[in-house]
Amino acid sequence: MKRHPTDRLSLAFGLLFLATVAGWLVFRSVDVNVGMAGWLLAGGLILFGVLGLIGSLRPRSQPVSSQPVSSQPVSSQPVSGSPRPGDPDDK
């Protein structure tokens, strides 16, 4: 497997979610009344989730052109230089 550098932001969020689950398990097994702080924490987590959804649904910037750029000008005339039959420039 190819090694890659550690993504610190992903690591930080992973540790944050791990701490949240560990805290939930502790509060689930131990009877602690957190009162209003519990509602504030829940609201903050819901807000982070909504912001994450909005960020993931936002369109990404598209590349300017998917076709290779040619250094030669594009012409409607045939390569030989003679006009095509029915051309509006036909005199």
Give a structural overview.
There is one protein chain. This protein has 2 helices and no strands. The radius of gyration is 31 Å and the shape is elongated. It has helices spanning 8-29, 36-57.
Please render the helix and strand layout as text:
Blueprint (H helix, E strand, L loop, with lengths): L7 H22 L6 H22 L34
| Average predicted confidence as pLDDT | 77
Share of residues in strands: under 5%
**Overall body shape:** elongated
Could you spell the SSE succession in H and E letters? HH
Give the low-pLDDT segments.
Answer: none
Given helix and strand content, the structural type is mainly alpha
* C-alpha termini separation: 68 Å
Helix content: 40-55%
* Continuous helix count: 2
Question: How many β strands by DSSP?
Answer: 0
In short:
With 91 residues, this protein is mainly α.
Q: Characteristics of this structure?
A:
mainly alpha, 91 residues, 0% strand, 2 helices, elongated
